[in-house]
Amino acid sequence: MSFKVIKSGFLVSVQDYGRFNHAKYGMSRCGVMDEHAYSWANYLLDNAFDDSVLEISLGAVELEAQFDVLIVVTGADLDFKINQKPAIMWHSVQVHKGDILSWGTLKSGVRAYLAVKNGFDTKMLFGSKSVNLREHIGTKISQGDTLDCAESFETSKRLMPIQYVPNYNKDITLRLLPSYQFNEFSISQRDLFFNQTYQITNASDRTGCRLQGAPIAFKQTKMISEGMSYGSVEIATDGLPIILLKDAPTIGGYPKIGTVFSLDLAKLAQKQPNAQLRFELINVNEAQEERVVFNQFFNIKF
Amino acid sequence: MHKIILAGEHSLLIYFGHKIDPNLPKNIANFAQQLITKFPNLIIDLTPSYTSLLVSYNLNLSTHQQFANQLEQCLNTFKYKSDYASSALLSMPVYYGFETGLDLERLLTEKQLDLNAFIDIHSSVEYLVYAIGFSPVFAFLGEVDSRIRTPRLATPRIKIPAGSVGIAQSQTAIYPTDSSGGWNIIGRTPIDLSLNNPSNIDKFKTGDRVKFHPISKDEYIKRGGKL
Predict the structure, then answer these.
(1) Which residue of A has its CA nearest to B8?
(2) Interface predicted TM-score (ipTM)
(3) Quick check: A249 and B202 CB within 8 A?
(4) Is A98 left (phi over 0), alpha (psi -120 to 50) or beta?
(5) CB nearest A251 (choices: B45, B133, B202)
(6) Is residue B167 domain-resident?
(7) Cα–Cα distance for residue pair A12/A8, rounded to 1 Å
(8) How many domains are there within chain B?
C-alpha cells in the first residue's frame, strides 16, 4: 500500500514529533517545523501525537494513491488539489485508488502537512522517523519513490472549526524567554533587540532562521561551546540573530540572547524570506502553562 | 561551583565550571547518567559539552522551579572525581599522507617540521573526548600539542572527505561523513564512522580517550581507505 511520487517538489521529507534522547550523540532534535499544523493533522485522524507525516515546503509535489486511504492536509495553502480539483484542508478526506494529490504554488504560509491514518510506514531511524539530510539520516524523496502506509477508511468526518484555521499572513511577534546569556547583554543592546523590526533572510532553512536588522554588540568574544535548545537565538559575530530550529547542531559557541517559545516557532515556520518580525519577553511560567494546555489538548506526552 | 540557568521552556543548562578542564567531561557524563537513573520519566534529552550539561525535561510532569530545585539538590551531593585514567581508550588508524592530508604540506612549511616529526607529535598524545557535536559521531578531541596548533581556514572547504582528520587550534577531530568544514586536514582514517553502521552512534563518548596510530599508504588501502 503506497503513494507513488510523481513530482518530488523543492523540499519534501517525512517528519514526526522529533528525535529525543539522542542529543548526546550529536543528533539534532529534528521533526516538524510547524507543531501546530502537525498536531491538528494527527488529531483529526485520531492518530498518535507523534505519528509521522509528510512535510511539504513550497509545493510542486504530486502523489498518486495506489490504494484507499484517509488523509488530512494542514498548514500552508499550497493550492492543494485532488484530481485537479481544489480540495479541502483541515478536514479528513477519503482518498481512493488512482487519485492524484497535488500541491502547486504557494498561496499563504510555507509548509503543508500530509497526514495519513496511523502515519507513514517508513523506517525508524534512531528513535524517530524524521529525516535530516545534513546529518545523513534518512534519504531525500525523489520522483518514482513510493511512500508506504496502511489502507484506511473513513468512519466519521472530522474537521477543524473554521475559526481556528490560522491566518499565516498576519505579522508575528516572537515571545522570547530570557535564557542563556540574556543578562550578559547590556541593557542598551537588549533595548535595541526588542525595539526593532527584523526581516527574515533568504539564508533560512530547517537548521536556522537568519534575521537582518541593526547589529547587536556583545563584549565577550570567546565562548565555550554549549548545548543549544530548540528556538535559542544566537547572536553571530556580525551581531545578527539566528533562531536555531529543528535541524540545528546540538552545540555551538555563539552567545544566545534568549529562547523563542515553541508555539511561536510554529508560526515562524510559515513565514517566507522578507517577512518582518519582532520580539517580546515572556516568562518561563507563562510559557510552560501555555504549552501544557496545548499538550493536553493534543494528548502530547512530553 | 556549579550554576543552573534557564535554557528554554523545557530545558535548563548546568555549568560545572567556567574553564575547559580535562576533569570535567567524565564528571559531566557521570552526572548525566545519574540523572537518567534518578528521573527516568522526566528527562527527554541531555546534551553534554565542555563545561556544561543541557537538560531537557518533560514539562507536562514538572515545572522550571521544581525541576531546578531537584537538580540543585543532585548537584550538591554529587561527588567529583579527578582520576580518569581508567576511561576507555580507542585507537584510530590514520594515513598521514599528502593525498589525504589536504593541508599537511602547508603545515609542515609553516611549522618547520618534517613529516615524521609532525606525525609523531600528533599521534603520541592521548586525546580526551571533550564533546560530541557539530554532527553525529563528530568528537572534539584535545589537546593538540602547541607545536602543531593552527587556526581554522579563513574560508571553509565545501567538501571534506569522510574519515579526514583535522586540527583547529588546540582541538583535533575526525569528520565521520563527507561534509563542509574549516579545520586543517592532516590525514584520513580508513575506518567507517558513518551511521551507515548504526553501532557507530556511540563510538566516542565524552570522557573517553582517543589515540591516533599512523599507518602506511598500503595498509590504509588494504583497510578500505580511498585516495
Answers:
(1) A259
(2) 0.96
(3) no
(4) left
(5) B133
(6) yes
(7) 7
(8) 2
